[in-house]
Amino acid sequence: MRAPMSWLRELVEVPAGTTGDDVHAALVRVGLEEEALHGGDVTGPLVVGRVLSFDAEEHTNGKTVRWVQVDVGEAEPRGIVCGAANFLVDDLVVVSLPGAVLPGGFAISARKTYGHVSDGMIASERELGLGDDHDGILRLNAKGLDAQPGDDALALLGLDDVAIEVNVTPDRGYVLSIRGMARELALSTGWSFRDPADVTTGSGDGFRVSIADDAPIRGVVGCGRLVARVVRGIDATRATPRWMQQRLTLAGMRPISLAVDVTNYVMLELGQPIHGYDLDLLRGGITVRRATAGETLVTLDDVTRTLDAEDLLICDDEGPVGLAGVMGGARTEMSAATTDVLVESAWFHGISVARTARRHRLWSEASRRFERGVDPALQDAAAQRVVDLLVELAGGTVDELGASVGQVPTPPTIAFAPQDAARVTGAVYGDDEVRAALEAIGATVADATGGTWRVTPPTWRPDIAERVDLVEEAARVVGYDRIPSVLPSPPSGRGLTRPQRLRRNVSNALAASGLTEVLVAPFQAEADARRVGHEPVRLTNPLDERRPFLRTALVPGLVETAQRNVGRGLTDLALFEVGAVFRIEGEHGTDAVPAGAVRPDDDTLATLDALPTQPRHVGALLLGARLAKQPGQPREPYGVADAVDVARRVARTLGLDVVVRQAQRDWLHPGRTAEVLVGEHVVGVAGELLPSIATDADLPRQVAVVELDLDVLVGLARVSLDTATIGATPAATQDLSVVVDASVPAGDVLAAVREGAGALLEHVALVDDYRGADLSGAKSLTFALRFRDPERTLTAAQATEAKLAGLALATERTGAALRD
């Protein structure tokens, strides 16, 4: 929020000599955050001059300049070279004398140019920072400004004013006004404050206004109060007074036209958004209602908007004329032809306005204020202020036609013990000191029994709802410097929990293996969220409308990350992520949440507790070269074997053994997909991405991926990991080749051989998978077996016996036959 110093001085008795930095410091003391100072870019001698005469001179470069004699209130006129030709003799102009500095650090000095010594500069609006007009110099008499040569042009044009900008937090919406900022300045300094809303208000009657929002959406009633006043016979073609234009510009708003500028001026002054309608373009009365699905409205920015059933509208008898609290409609817009104006001043619920503004991506100065809370007792004063200015500046006449519907809500009364301030902050406060602080912010303090007070906050402070809010107010008004700085004694830490430690071990193991950890936002488009076959969770208020769903797996996010990196020339990638995914189990969410301080009933709370489950997964993506091409070594790309190896690495880190078996997934390559199991538990999947998906993402056709349920793996992890020992006795190695049906998974055969061979089998691995014409419909599998007895040296017969036992069980379970 920007507040011109001259405007603040109208409401607060600011001592002479107070600078913008002084005001910033005072506002910081009461909890506001300083941003910047605006204006004050013009310094030095800037005076009014009268053109006495000029001679036009043509030069060899083709340019025509004027050698001007200007009266600047001194004994002798000054000679100035000027390139503009839009002024006449006797015109009043602005003269920057030597020593002046214009915006951008442009210093003025006497200098020789075009054969003359130019003793200053005649300035344009653009050169003074007053606007974009650079067609010629600024003619004060053409602007209706009366002055004499030698008068201070800085004060005349308001160039000596400066705007103080502060950052306004969402709970302090009342500071989005000159009224609110002036109140805070007076609160900090003790300077006297004049409330601009403390005016005698008129009233109107006979204009039909109704609020038809009997069925609030999500517990939100959109409009609580609306005041309408009528002013007739305005001259909308009159120019906005320069002082008003200057204040609007310094406050960060662009002057538009007199009627619009008046409503904006009052909004900035009081914090109450105002809208003006061309009364002749309104049809009938005004109704505040919710939109019907598919209804449309052309807003003031000439955009046709399709409305949602939650949008609150201002309507006449023909249809919508405005998005309540956000932006008016083009059909009833005030223009240069407007003579009669309906002034609307309303209180709209912040949640309703915020949802509409976000839904249509239409943020305005009005919506910004309503979102943060507008004083519900301010509508009459704001309407009266607009009416008075339209009468004064536009020549209008007040009409008795108008309306006032709705009631000013009574703020809640809070039971407060004065000792609470000291108990919460640790500072020592007297009861009188606390009472004075609460009364200074506008609260009403009444004594009650038991040493407690009954405190009623002012209407402009909807953020004060509990005891602790009053403690905060007392602390900031009395001064934060009164709060002692005491370092708390932290409890001794217990370190990481076992699941945290194991998850960290997994991340460390993958990083140590050469994979790069990434952190991907959990928001996805619907197609990506559904790709892995789970029902996605939709967000009510997504940060990005293109990604309104929470992820159900990590792989789609890793694919998007790989796509971005490949596009930047990184063609060999090994990425992994450890993070939460979101799964729906049962019913989730509710539309029955009441607004404000109303506590939801038990059934609603139970529905709110039914959040999506959020298991932690670990995922990895591998593409490009596992081994780069080099002399004597061909390039080896990542493939499904590498994805399986990552799964085994994760399992080994947790002390687990995994087995893999062939599987099918719609988003993975058929024939290159494996389920990962620990015992009977399927803990994840590894394989290669479906080539069409990889191509759509501009990735190589061969992309290896793996995703495991880390929570399940951590739950199955061994309490203590076994340490491998090197056997002291010799090993006996043998091979086993069997023939099985081609449809039988090799993993099933390997599992049967391992189980049947018994305790002597130390290791078994598949070393060959042969499929040839001589094995129609079948395949030959060769396993390498290693046997060892820790107590004695095995004989060949003992190893063979164990091998044949494994073969027997494999034959029984899978139909495997020993290959000749």
UniProtKB/TrEMBL annotation:
Its main location: cytoplasm. Mg(2+) binds at D463, D469, E472, E473. Gene3D superfamilies: 3.30.56.10, Bira Bifunctional Protein, Domain 2, Ferrodoxin-fold anticodon-binding domain, Nucleic acid-binding proteins, Phenylalanyl-trna Synthetase, Chain B, domain 3. Its EC number is 6.1.1.20. It catalyses: tRNA(Phe) + L-phenylalanine + ATP = L-phenylalanyl-tRNA(Phe) + AMP + diphosphate + H(+). Pfam families: B3_4 (PF03483), B5 (PF03484), FDX-ACB (PF03147), tRNA_bind (PF01588), tRNA_synthFbeta (PF17759). Its cofactor is Mg(2+). Keywords: Aminoacyl-tRNA synthetase, ATP-binding, Cytoplasm, Ligase, Magnesium, Metal-binding, Nucleotide-binding, Protein biosynthesis, RNA-binding, tRNA-binding. Residues 40-154 form the TRNA-binding domain. GO terms for molecular function: ligase activity. It is found in: Cytoplasm. The keyword Ligase applies. Residues 409-485 form the B5 domain. Binds 2 magnesium ions per tetramer. The keyword Transmembrane helix does not apply. Residues 727-819 form the FDX-ACB domain. NCBIfam families: pheT_bact (TIGR00472). Belongs to the phenylalanyl-tRNA synthetase beta subunit family. Type 1 subfamily. Tetramer of two alpha and two beta subunits. This is Phenylalanine--tRNA ligase beta subunit. It comes from Agrococcus versicolor. The gene is pheT.
